[in-house]
Amino acid sequence: MNIFRIIALAALAATASGCVRVNQVDRGTLSKQIMQFEPMGNRQNFVSEFHAIREGASGGVNQSAGGGCGCN
Amino acid sequence: MAAIKKILLSFVLAAALEASALAATSLDLVLNYLSQGGKGGRQVYDGTGDQDLTIYEPVLYVNHEIDGKTAVFGSVAYDLLSSASNKAFDTGTGASEGGWQDRKAVNAGYSKRVGDWMFTPTLGFSTELSYKSLSGGVNVQRFFAEENFVLSAGIFHYADQAKPWDISAGAFRKWQDKKTDSVNLSATQLLSERDMVLAGVSYTSQSGYLEGTRNTVDTGTRVEEVLPGTREKYTLSGRYVRSLKDNLALHLDYRYYTDSWDIKAHTLEPALAVSFAEEKGLYRVFYRLHSQSEAKYYQDSFLSGARTYMTSDSDLDKFTANEVGVQFSYAPERWEGLMGGDWTWGGTALYYDRSNDLDAVIAQLNLGVKF
Question: Is residue B137 within 8 Å of B150, Cβ to Cβ?
């Protein structure tokens, strides 16, 4: 797949809702721990490393790129 | 290697010096345990396919906020692991690295917010018996429209080295270089007062020694796997979070993956996060489905004839993996202010099952404190 096509699609998707504006005072719900992308923090690192080791299809945003470990 | 250690030590000391004007420090000790089983490992030297693996890994994370805009952080990990496939390899070849092995890793980083920008450089180092790694990178974030929209870009480099065993010569080869460069770009957008979305792409380029140091193929006799010296990986990710009730949120993650070895994969992970005890506690229940096609160099065996590139590594095979788990964290009220800190503890129980005969259990316990 053409990486530039992926980037263009992602940028389009990300900016399509760029007109939405949530004021700071209205972010009570969004700031809760249950709304965080990684609510369990550091514990996710080991699980992500396991996926990177055991699945040939590793890598991605906030994920191991496949370096740093010689695990078989 | 001494130079590498000096660089890392200098980095950590510099961070510690800047941290002298204490503001807030958090420590998090995580105890990781992995028990893996399965007989589907066609890369295993003795032909049994035995992929049993046990890992114990304590990790200490440290984060220190110097002020509202600056922080230093780092982690130190020590892995103790025992692998059946390694023992089989050693027994068959005399590589003599079997039994319990260990791995040490240290990471450090610094984050600085300047206006609508956030800069986060990081460094990492790890070493084990036949592998070592030095990594560095930087992540840059740009906040728009009072942080309604955030763009994030990261670039990372891993300078790794592997020490494979030469089966025919019955001796270790010299350290082989393996380089990994990765760039990623993501955008996060608040959609309403109750939901937000993230979209991201990444590109990774690897070169050098990309084989597993102990992976073999069966050509009538057992020989080392042979893989190309380059690999390019692409991913497209999406994450969505929506609040369903005051104490309940739905998470949906999806990732598409493709690479130059012809592996294509889809990964979907829905999860529910529930808070309790006036948000002092949190449960997360999740399911993960991963489906991938096989690498074009993969075959169960090569009895029909050796190829230029050949692998029987089950991780590069076609499979579907199902994973379920639950995580929790809790900050007991009676622990507030104990020894001058606010304490939390938590745990994880996870079960992973792969269609090509591999399963695993992961258990985690953590204890954290913020001063």
Answer: no
Q: Is the dihedral of CA B331, B333, B335, B337 positive or negative?
A: positive
Say yes or no: ipTM exceeds 0.85. yes
Record: contact B204-A65, CB cut-off 8 A: yes
Question: Please, how many CA atoms are within 13 Å of residue B108, restricted to the half-sphere of its CB?
Answer: 15
Let me know: does B109 contact B137? Beta carbons within 8 Å.
no
Interface mutation target, options A7, A17, A22, A53, chain B, most CBs of B under 10 Å: A22
Q: Write the burial class of residue B207 (CB in 10 Å: 0-12 exposed, 13-18 middle, 19+ buried).
A: middle
CB atoms within 10 A of CB A5: 11
CA dihedral B80, B214, B226, B303 (to 10 degrees): -140
Q: What is the pLDDT of residues B323-358, one digit of tens each?
A: 999 999 999 998 888 888 899 999 999 999 999 999
Q: A30 with A22: CB under 8 angstroms?
A: yes
Q: Which of A62, A36, A60, A46 is nearest to B75 (CA)?
A: A46
Nearest CB to A61; choose among B34, B130, B202 = B202
User: B2-370 has which fold?
Assistant: Porin (2.40.160)
Polymer length of chain B: 371
Residues near B355 by Cβ (< 8 Å), separated by ≥ 6?
B319, B320, B321
Confidence (pTM) = 0.89
